[in-house]
């Protein structure tokens, strides 16, 4: 959720819960209202003031962390928080001085960074002066909480704004990359088809002029047009196949990004290891293994509830020859957490066409329990032969 607005109700509830949990430090004012020696009007004003203070504080912190600070409405809310943070301690006693800590946090959330830092320092000084005014005597115990709360909130704001800018930059980079890919595809198609289509047009015009006076020569031109067309079609298919075929190196990088985004710690190689002397991995087999890796990581992100995912690639030898083995292992709920439907079936069929095999099951049978399910983990193993397709 960091750096973006909540999109679901659960995220909204989590955001408000995280903010509201810090209200536990209002225990002193709450206890004072329950056990303190106050008149009826003082109790009524205290409850009303405390509820108003909490409402203003929640609105300020929740609504201004990701928004431009210091609007007119924000300053009015902040003035209300300040008035209550000073008025309630002056009228009800020293146990209400903790409201100054919440005012410092509100300043850190709502004001521009430079003004917020100044306001936090002023609030810390006020937490020393105000007890003297109320007659409670000098008390510096609130200075450190006030400074920590206010400056921590400014740090959170800087982190959130930086995250927002980073996401915007990533979106811009992705858009630029997509535009560059379109331009590259356009250039490649132009290079592939420009000459062929020009030649087809020229030979078609020539055949049209020859068809009545030299029919045999015209037939030869038509046969050459057919050859050029077939070769052009093959070139286009090869180019499009190259654009659509995934590679293991790209999928390894994408897997690490996807796992980190889901809060799962990835452990994955950066390149495809091959023993010395072995032939490189065939393109179709590499594509099949890349699809397996993509589907396996997708299942880990969506269904496993894991905290760690280990991806290993190793070139091995058997009696049938060298092969490349891909293992994707997580520490989540186990096979029961992932659907055994078309995904794994399709991967097995794809690998079978490439001469490979697929195995899946619990990584650690009988492991510790995670909630209502055993945390057995899930292990997917795919193997494809090395070398060219026979």
Please tell me the overall pLDDT: 77
> What is the terminal-to-terminal distance?
50 Å
What is the number of helices? 11
- The low-confidence parts are 369-373
Biggest sheet statistics? 5 strands, mixed
- Portion of residues in beta strands equals 5-15%
Instruction: Compute the number of strand runs.
Output: 7
Which structural class should the secondary elements be placed in? alpha+beta
Shape: elongated
Radius of gyration: 34 Å
Element-by-element helix/strand order: HHHHHHHHHEHEEHEEEE
Give the proportion of residues in helices.
55-70%
Sheet with the most strands: spatial strand order: 1-2-3-7-4
Account of the protein in words:
The chain is an alpha+beta fold. 63% of the residues lie in helices and 11% in strands. It is built from eleven helices and seven strands. The chain has helices at residues 9-20, 27-35, 40-64, 72-92, 99-110, 113-134, 143-210, 215-244, 248-261, 283-304, 342-353; strands at 265-267, 308-318, 321-330, 357-362, 369-370, 373-374, 378-385. Helix 10 (283-304) runs antiparallel to helix 11 (342-353). The radius of gyration is 34 Å and the shape is elongated.
